[in-house]
Amino acid sequence: VKGQREISIAKGLGSNYYLSDAATQYETSSSSLAVNSSYKYHLTHSITFGLSAAMENITGNIYQYNYSNYTANYLASYTTCISIASEFTWSYYDRSKIPGRINAKLYGAISYGIGFIHSHQYSVDAHNYNSYTNKAETGFQLTYFGIRVGKSFAAFLELGGGYKGLINMGLEIRYPQKDYQPKLKIKNQIK
């Protein structure tokens, strides 16, 4: 319903940062999963616009061997990725309008913004190597399938790709619960 707001918190698996950087550069890598939160405002019953933010920590290890001087270096990396983006969602099927049915909604979403990446590489063995990298890049998320089950309090599952991950699931609160009709106070002033 127009004027309603939604706040959600979720965890995502397989973010674009993890898949493109850590999984391709390191022999072993792990992720804290992408913790994300969003605020959405209903422009209509089936269209929302809002803001989304996500954070993920990625660790990786690589063993480098230099054949020219027969030395080895064991490197570790710790990367923090933070994304902030605007988010647009649209519902393509909504069962909440059918009385006596479970409230379920199928939707898609697109987010576009900026991602901040801070990376620290360091040598684990005796070699004294430290490297810090800071960069900003485009942060995006395309959700081609999302399902939300519940009314004012709901659970959701999303499939897509980007800073939230390939699979993203969490909880959401929608308020106000009733049809929102802003009240305008009109004062008649007669002089």
What this model shows, in words?
With 191 residues, this protein is mainly β. Strand 7 and strand 8 form a beta hairpin. The chain has an 8-stranded antiparallel barrel. It contains 1 helix and 9 strands; from the N terminus they run E-H-E-E-E-E-E-E-E-E.
Please outline what is shown here:
By secondary structure, the protein is mainly β. The chain is about 5% helix and about 65% strand. It has an 8-stranded antiparallel β-barrel.
Q: Beta-strand percentage?
A: over 45%
- Sketch the topology as an H/E string, one letter per element: EHEEEEEEEE
Kindly state the mean pLDDT as a whole number? Answer: 86
Low-pLDDT stretches are none
Write the layout of secondary structure elements.
Blueprint: E1 5-13, H1 16-25, E2 28-31, E3 34-42, E4 47-66, E5 71-94, E6 104-123, E7 130-150, E8 153-162, E9 167-175
Antiparallel strand pairs: 1-3, 1-9, 2-4, 3-4, 4-5, 5-6, 6-7, 7-8, 8-9
